[in-house]
Write a structure and sequence with these properties.
Layout lengths: L38 E2 L7 E2 L13 E2 L10 H30 L4 H19 L1 H12 L5 H21 L9 E2 L2 E2 L3 H23 L1 H9 L5 E5 L5 E5 L8 E4 L8 E7 L1 E4 L1 H4 L5 E3 L4 E2 L4 E2 L4 E7 L5 H15 L6 H27 L4 H15 L3 H20 L2 E3 L2 H7 L4 E4 L1 H5 L5 E7 L5 H12 L5 H12 L9 E4 L4 E6 L2 E6 L1 H6 L8 H9 L3 E7 L2 E9 L6 H10 L3 E5 L4 H11 L3 E3 L4 H13 L4 E5 L5 H6 L2 E5 L4 H6 L2 E3 L6 H35 L3 H4 L5 H20 L12
């Protein structure tokens, strides 16, 4: 089992800043939370405790500071799913009875009230219990929010209706309609079911956050092949590898830990960490990074950093801290609810004392009933729906356009982005080496150079060789099998083709066999400046030509960058590739600010630096080296063609890896936030109109008190208008020429 840095936060329990404390990682404990796991609130990082629970400030479920390698079963998600599905049928039956019971005439209305009471009790007292707990916490902590409103509204509707069913005689005559004192059971049931549904959607989105860390922890190989002192070899679990151990890495295997090559040579694919699309030649004395892929040769390495000291573990720690420090946006509905709660409670108290002191007899009965009516009509049925409905419609609309939003915060934040950091390999470019061109020397034509090189390369497993062979076949050149072939230890290949002695590789190989490369030095330099990898071909120890392999820019990139500039977004390129290559791609695409040779920690630092300057930063990338920056940015954007780790760290995934999707997502973000604001306005207009009615302000002039039927109708109308308005998003226009 991979050692996992899970209790990093243990030492930081009393430390409210985001520092990593260099503790050795605890071994994973099969999905159970290890001793010392710290739980914190995504919205209020200062809340820290050693057991799961809810945040005392906002009621959100606390999350472990450091997720584990196993998929944690989210107990709250499972609990809410059970509560929702078990009580949904009851909510439906109660609603149907309330709306059509009188017309059906199956039983008299007093009996119907009893049936509704029996069906609603489990919904309110069991399914809705967590909401009442959160509502009580919000009062104790003096931080009114959605839960205060929901618990006040549903609680008062339920208690009022229970009293109306058990003791209808306490109500004045004017409250009786259709043979019973009207009840609000269906309002309480529907609000609780809808709120549970909203919570399920949010918890599902949040449970994906830890998937980024799980996929990172899954990258390291499970075992390593250790060479013992007497020369024997044995497979040992990775956790048992110590500093100084000699390890064998065979072709096609992952490098187990960080260390140095002591024997052999190979090309190692480090693209997952550096973003460099071409494998890096490794010879004796060169450094190796754990979890990178050994492509062609066999290596023996000495282990130098293990456990939480490896580069991979450091990336895991950076991702976890970055995710923690990017708190989700305080929900718009919550902010509004804070003020609204106070207003509603004040209105209810004024109603109570106004009726009690100045109303007709029995004045205090009227006072109590009308005060409760105010609390019921103010209950945020539509308010609870306002944002989840818009988010649901927007995510569906985005998915059909190749844009996957993972959570509400991404939709709410994307419209504010003013700076975009893009990775080069796999984001601006294809991320796969492709043959660029051949240059002939002397009597060798370009086609002949490509044909000979491809014939020789048929024996090689190197990705550059694969690109050359594929290009020759595409051009219909007749390849011949090499008569002899050998790999020249990471600097190229040698062999015999058609009785000619061939060598193909870098300048070091040419120097080794005594071939002068100066005749084509100018062309080689020009190709390198364009960002290509250059190989020399020698035939019978004389220079025959050059071959260039590069990572081509995606066809859609230029158009995507133009639309971002139109939106006044500053674009910055940050790549692990060499500065020369990065600059050449930057020049071609008109990107002025280019950072080359950056490590994962440098990308993260760049995001933090821009955020400190007050910029709202989006980061687009596709690799493991982008994960910490994706998690830290205000909005992380992953390419659907990239690694799972990148997609799990980001909040937005472009399914086809097409950067033009950012314009689609941005326009959707603007439409959705406008739609949410309209929904909240609808919800408040209905409530604002209903409260004076419920308080009995019209009674002196019209003799009207709020009929419960009118209250129920107002609630239904407000919910219907919110749902209808959210559905308008489906027809929202998005920019043309997009995926």
């Amino acid at each position: 089992m991979t050692p996992t840095p899970m209790n990093i936060g243990a030492a930081a329990t009393h430390d409210h800043h985001h520092h990593v404390h260099g503790q050795a990682p605890a071994a994973s404990t099969g999905g159970k939370d290890p001793a010392g796991t710290v739980y914190t609130c995504p919205m209020h990082p200062e809340i820290r405790q050693d057991h799961p629970g809810n945040c005392p400030k906002c009621g959100m479920a606390l999350e472990p500071l450091m997720p584990t390698a196993e998929a944690d079963d989210n107990p709250e998600l499972a609990d809410f799913q059970r509560r929702f599905w078990w009580t949904l049928p009851l909510s439906i039956v109660v609603t149907v009875l309330a709306m059509f019971g009188h017309d059906l005439g199956w039983f008299d209305m007093a009996t119907q009230s009893w049936i509704e009471l029996v069906l609603t009790a489990p919904i309110v007292l069991w399914a809705g219990w967590p909401f009442f707990v959160r509502g009580a916490q919000s009062v104790v902590n003096r931080s009114p929010n959605m839960w205060t409103l929901i618990s006040l509204g549903t609680g008062s509707a339920f208690v009022y209706s229970v009293v109306a069913t058990l003791a209808p005689q306490v109500f004045p005559e004017s409250f009786v309609s259709m043979g019973r004192v009207a009840v609000y059971f269906e309002a309480a049931a529907v609000i609780i079911s809808l709120t549970l549904l909203g919570q399920l959607l949010e918890l599902k989105a949040r449970s994906q956050t830890s998937a980024a860390i799980r996929s990172l922890l899954g990258l390291a190989p499970r075992t390593a092949r250790r060479i013992t002192a007497d020369g024997q070899e044995e497979d040992v679990p990775l956790a048992h590898v110590h500093v100084g151990d000699l390890l064998r890495v065979r072709p096609g295997e992952k490098v187990p830990t960080d260390g140095t090559v002591v024997e052999g040579s190979s090309a190692v694919d480090e693209s997952m960490l550096t973003g460099e699309p071409l494998p890096v030649s490794k010879r004796v004395g060169d450094p190796l990074i754990g979890a990178t892929l050994n492509t062609s040769g066999a290596l023996v390495m000495r282990s130098e950093r293990v456990g939480s000291g490896t580069v991979l573990s450091q990336i895991v720690q950076m991702v976890a801290l970055a995710q923690r420090s990017r708190a989700p946006m305080q929900r718009m509905a919550d902010q509004v609810a804070g003020y609204f709660v106070v207003g509603v409670v004040v209105a209810a108290l004024l109603t109570f004392f106004g009726w009690g002191l100045f109303g007709p007899e029995p004045s205090w009965v009227y006072a109590l009933i009308n005060a409760v009516a105010v609390l019921i009509i103010a209950c945020p049925c539509a308010l609870g729906l306002a944002t989840p409905m818009s988010i649901m419609v927007a995510t569906g609309r985005g998915a059909t356009r190749g844009v996957l939003f993972r959570d509400a915060a991404a939709i709410e934040n994307l419209r504010k982005v003013d700076t975009l950091i893009v990775d080069k390999t796999g984001t601006l470019t294809e991320g796969r080496p492709r043959f660029d061109r051949a240059v002939g020397q002397g009597h060798f034509s370009e086609d002949e150079v490509l044909r000979l090189a491809a014939s020789l390369d048929q024996g090689s497993e190197h990705p550059l060789a694969a690109a050359i062979v594929a290009a020759a076949k595409e051009q219909g050149l007749a390849l011949v099998a090499p008569e002899r072939f050998d790999s020249a230890s990471g600097i190229g290949v040698k062999g015999v083709v058609e009785s000619k002695s061939l060598a193909l590789g870098n300048a070091a190989l040419m120097q080794q066999i005594g071939v002068d490369v100066s005749p084509l030095a100018h062309e080689a330099e020009a190709l390198r400046a364009r960002g290509a990898s250059v190989m020399h071909l020698a035939v019978d120890k004389a220079l025959a030509g050059l071959l260039a392999v590069s990572d081509p820019v995606k066809a859609t990139t230029a158009e995507a960058l133009a639309s971002l500039r139109e939106a006044h977004i500053r674009v910055i390129m940050a790549t692990g590739d060499g500065l020369t290559t990065a600059r050449s791609v930057g020049e071609r695409l008109g990107i002025d600010e280019v950072h080359g040779e950056v490590k994962p920690a440098d990308k993260l630092a760049l995001v933090e630096k821009l955020q400190a300057e007050g910029r709202v930063v989006a980061m687009a990338g596709d690799g493991i080296n982008d994960a910490p920056a994706l998690a830290r940015a205000n909005v992380g954007i992953a390419m659907g063609t990239g690694t799972d780790v990148a997609m799990n760290s980001a909040q937005l995934t472009l399914i086809k890896g097409d950067l033009r999707g950012i314009a689609v997502a941005r326009s959707l973000s603007e439409d959705t936030v406008a739609n949410m604001k309209q929904n909240l306005a609808f919800a408040f207009v209905y409530n604002a109109l209903g409260i004076p009615l419920a308080a009995g302000l019209l009674y002196p002039f019209t003799g009207w008190l709020l009929s419960p039927m009118i209250a129920a109708l107002a609630m239904s109308l407000s919910s219907a208008s919110v749902i209808g308005n959210a559905l308008r998003l489906r027809g929202a226009k998005v920019p043309h020429g997009t995926p």
